[in-house]
C-alpha cells in the first residue's frame, strides 16, 4: 500500500465502520479508553474547573472563592483509623467502590470591606471519582504483571 491511500479521507459511514475492526486489532478498545481517561484526569478536568476559577458573590463582590489547584489522589481505604492505598481487588472483595478523592486548594475572602480577610485552604476533598483499573490514578498504573499480582 502507498502512503496516499492510507492517509486518504474516509468518505462514507460504511467505510468508517469497516475500519473499526482494524483499529481494535492495532490499538484495542481498552487502551483507547485508558488513554482518553488519563487525558481527562490529567488535563480536561482541570480545564473544566479552571473555566470557573473564581466564584464571586453578586451582592458582595469583594467576597469570592478562587480555585488554586485541583487534583485527583490515589484511592484510599481506612482500616483501624489509618489511611492506606487500596487496590481494585481489595475494593471488589470488600464490596466497596474503587474511588479516588478529588482535592482542591482554594483561596477565599470573608468579612466586610473594612475588615477583609484572605485565607487559603489546602487539600479539601470535594468528592470521590470512580477509578478504572490501570488508569493513571490507579495504584497499579505502570506496574508489571508480577507487581499487579501482588496487590
UniProtKB/TrEMBL annotation:
<comment type="similarity">
    <text>Belongs to the RNA polymerase beta chain family.</text>
</comment>
<feature type="domain" description="RNA polymerase beta subunit protrusion">
    <location>
        <begin position="28"/>
        <end position="147"/>
    </location>
</feature>
<keyword id="KW-0548">Nucleotidyltransferase</keyword>
<keyword id="KW-0804">Transcription</keyword>
<dbReference type="InterPro" id="IPR007644">
    <property type="entry name" value="RNA_pol_bsu_protrusion"/>
</dbReference>
<dbReference type="GO" id="GO:0000428">
    <property type="term" value="C:DNA-directed RNA polymerase complex"/>
</dbReference>
<keyword id="KW-0808">Transferase</keyword>
<dbReference type="Pfam" id="PF04563">
    <property type="entry name" value="RNA_pol_Rpb2_1"/>
</dbReference>
<protein>
    <recommendedName>
        <fullName>DNA-directed RNA polymerase</fullName>
        <ecNumber>2.7.7.6</ecNumber>
    </recommendedName>
</protein>
<keyword id="KW-0240">DNA-directed RNA polymerase</keyword>
<dbReference type="InterPro" id="IPR015712">
    <property type="entry name" value="DNA-dir_RNA_pol_su2"/>
</dbReference>
<dbReference type="GO" id="GO:0032549">
    <property type="term" value="F:ribonucleoside binding"/>
</dbReference>
<dbReference type="GO" id="GO:0003677">
    <property type="term" value="F:DNA binding"/>
</dbReference>
<dbReference type="GO" id="GO:0003899">
    <property type="term" value="F:DNA-directed RNA polymerase activity"/>
</dbReference>
<dbReference type="GO" id="GO:0006351">
    <property type="term" value="P:DNA-templated transcription"/>
</dbReference>
Amino acid at each position: 500500500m502507498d502512503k496516499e491511500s492510507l492517509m486518504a479521507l474516509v468518505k462514507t459511514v460504511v467505510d468508517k465502520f469497516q475500519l473499526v475492526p482494524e483499529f481494535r486489532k492495532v490499538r484495542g478498545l481498552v487502551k483507547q479508553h485508558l488513554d482518553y481517561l488519563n487525558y481527562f484526569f490529567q488535563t480536561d478536568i482541570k480545564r473544566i474547573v479552571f473555566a470557573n476559577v473564581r466564584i464571586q458573590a453578586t451582592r458582595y463582590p469583594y467576597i469570592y472563592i478562587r480555585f488554586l489547584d485541583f487534583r485527583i489522589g490515589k484511592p484510599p481505604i481506612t482500616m483501624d483509623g489509618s489511611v492506606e492505598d487500596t487496590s481494585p481487588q481489595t475494593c471488589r472483595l470488600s464490596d466497596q467502590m474503587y474511588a479516588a478523592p478529588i482535592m482542591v486548594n482554594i483561596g477565599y475572602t470573608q468579612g466586610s470591606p473594612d475588615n477583609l480577610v484572605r485565607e487559603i485552604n489546602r487539600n479539601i476533598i470535594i468528592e470521590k471519582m470512580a477509578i478504572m483499573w490501570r488508569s493513571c490514578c490507579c495504584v497499579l498504573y505502570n506496574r508489571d504483571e508480577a507487581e499487579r499480582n501482588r496487590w
